[in-house]
Description:
Layout: H1 14-17, H2 24-29, H3 35-38, H4 70-80, E1 84-88, E2 94-99, H5 100-109, E3 128-130, H6 135-142, E4 147-154, E5 158-166, H7 167-181
Parallel strand pairs: 3-4
Antiparallel strand pairs: 1-2, 4-5
Amino acid sequence: NENDRCVVILPDGVRNYMTKFVDNTWMWERGFMQEAEVLIEGQKPWFWNMQINSIAPGSGLITISPNSTVSEAINMMKQGGFDQLPVVAASGNFRGMITVAEMMKNVVSGKVRVDDKVEKTLIKEFPIVERTDILGKLTSLLKLHPYVVVVDTQAGKKQTLVGIVTHVDVLNYLIIADNYEH
């Protein structure tokens, strides 16, 4: 109708207002873009379309109980050389993640004591990928996050924790795969 009004608000530049929305990886990560729009075919590295299955086999995953103490978690992480651990209940229910950085922040600030349960330092928001997703998605997420949680969704319902992938895991895989190819 000619009597209707349309108001348009335009930022004076992208520097202060739109930095997230001009980042294709950020848009793809949140489902606003398709994978094909992020990179054109010639820009994709050789491993881009390979499945995450090849890097996260799903066996030997070390977890910690939500009833374990922060002190126990620190010792476990120190012995295993981990910066993060998945927290899994006795029922097999994946509760979240704990990290060295989050535990330190909470202990130093006095929010948590070392004899408190790790559940008090639980991180519940982190990037998740399906085991059948592509390495391109995984590596894009690792540009923004220190780790990515890999799950397997069975019959569109229950998500089973498969693994945690870090920068080192990807680099080790790429070195081995590249040496094998040549």
